[in-house]
Amino acid sequence: MAETSYTIEPIGVIRSELTNLANAPLQGDEGNYEAWLELTPQAAPGLLGLRIGDDLLVLTWLHLAERDTLQVHPRGNPDNPLMGVFNTRSQDRPNPIGLHRVSVLQIDGQRLKVAPIEAVDGTPIVDIKSVLTEISER
Amino acid sequence: MAETSYTIEPIGVIRSELTNLANAPLQGDEGNYEAWLELTPQAAPGLLGLRIGDDLLVLTWLHLAERDTLQVHPRGNPDNPLMGVFNTRSQDRPNPIGLHRVSVLQIDGQRLKVAPIEAVDGTPIVDIKSVLTEISER
Predict the structure, then answer these.
(1) What's the CATH fold of domain B15-132?
(2) What pLDDT, in 10s, does the model give residues B92-128?
(3) ipTM, 2 dp
(4) How many CB atoms lie under 10 A from the CB of residue B73?
(5) Full-prediction pTM beyond 0.95?
(6) Which end is more exposed in chain B, N or C (fewer Cβ atoms within 10 Å of the end residue's Cβ)?
(7) Which of B38, B57, B97 has its CB closest to that of A126?
(8) What is the predicted pLDDT for the residue at B134?
(9) Under an 8 A CB cutoff, do B47 and A130 touch?
(10) CB distance A97–B127 less than 8 Å?
(11) Which residues pair with B39 in a beta bridge?
């Protein structure tokens, strides 16, 4: 099982004032940072129908994460018992996909301004999904 | 931007009675299917601390999806206006990552029985994250 690997071709990139991990909050609502999602020209048709105020799930590739980490002390606090990364929201994990729930603040062609999002400038965007009521949380 | 691609190495595979897309519901709670998450031996240490009853987000690679689709009629209904895939939950999209919120029903070594999950048998597992209260939805 799991013999096959798959290739992610980013659909865009995060443009943010956050330029390094030391300044980045651990979760998106701990600072309420805004950022631009800059889509590639190829991916831009996938934005059709989006409107200001829409809620989205943004999936990113946390390119600065450590992929060989399987256990951590949650939130980097050694007082927290060691946990498997799949039981945490640590960014360090074998496939470091970030998950961010945001609202659309502004739309400018193939760019969306969104908040809150804690990803650093240059973080690749993997996917964007609508947030549906009720059913979306499944 | 987005010149670089990234490689997903699956951490495991879905084992389910659902064997083809024709039988699969569009969302996880439209059928309440159970499935086993079978982790690879390499990834299994990442499960440390998980317990029955925990809520998890399971990220899958929807290997049967069409990656060149950018616009769809939501839920395959031509009466729904054409939408960019990033404004939908369509499985067809450039990087077809599935997002499933599940509860842990049973733990057997490196296998977890979970529900509800609509992914078909053989779907690769990309990541597993804990669901935190409040903050988790960000």
Answers:
(1) Elongation Factor Tu (Ef-tu); domain 3 (2.40.30)
(2) 999 999 999 999 999 999 999 999 998 999 999 999 9
(3) 0.89
(4) 14
(5) no
(6) N
(7) B97
(8) 45
(9) no
(10) yes
(11) B12
